[in-house]
Write a structure and sequence with these properties.
By secondary structure, the protein is of the alpha/beta class. The chain has nine helices and seven strands. The strands form two sheets. It has a five-stranded parallel beta sheet with strand order 1-2-3-7-6, with helices on both faces. Helix 8 links the parallel strand 6 and strand 7. The radius of gyration is 17 Å and the shape is globular.
Length: 272
Amino acid sequence: MNDSEISSLKEKAYLLRQDILKMTTKAASGHPTTSMSCIDLLSALYFHEMKHNPKNPEWQERDRFILSKGHGAPAQYVCLAHAGYFPKEELNHLRQINSMLQGHPDRVKIPGIEISTGSLGMGLSVGNGMAYAGKMDGLPYQTFVVMGDGELQEGQCWEALWTTTFLGLGNVTVIIDRNGLQNDGWVKETKDPEPLAAKLEAFGFETITINGHDFREIIPALQKSRSAQKPLAIIAKTVKGKGVPFMENNPDFHGKALSPEQLTEALKGLER
């Protein structure tokens, strides 16, 4: 990637973070910090790497994207809006009655959503099915599944990971948002997944660990997934609340929107 492309993605991620903060503050609910930990990953996917068409969301050859950690929905919503799947004005109606944008992604109401998620642990199972169908149909799409590291405490995740490699689904890319925090505090204090890379490799994955906020590491990792000889798992080390210093790595902000006063402070200090 050249410097211009990197700068463009950084600027896009900056604007998306602004919208995440604004929409969750207006709603007075939501999960801004878990959305901000993965927004650089989603920016890279939606605005550089994935094949998709906002004018034809059901295009057969589109790459599939599943946000298994569905409470990070604001991150996916802002990407879809900026990509043109629906008007940006809809972001102002997050979690309102009769709004298309509820607390978790809705496959029926929102163009560009592949599966309704929210109950943790389901995403990769569905992603495996999509990828297997793609192989059967001879379609060249890649299926990207973003999972949370706290989500890995769900047993279904490990059944699905086993299935990915057992079926040889090289057209599945697992991306783990390794921000270290979950609803009740630090992941390592609830159930530590480490050594994570070694476990995934024992299951048969090729693994790569990256800085999940550095596009110079994110893009090559995503591109590698298309040529990997076996399923690729990307462990993206991230910071929950990335971009706003007083929110970063702060467990108290899980599932908590900012006050209007905090929003003003956050926008002033938001890192570019």
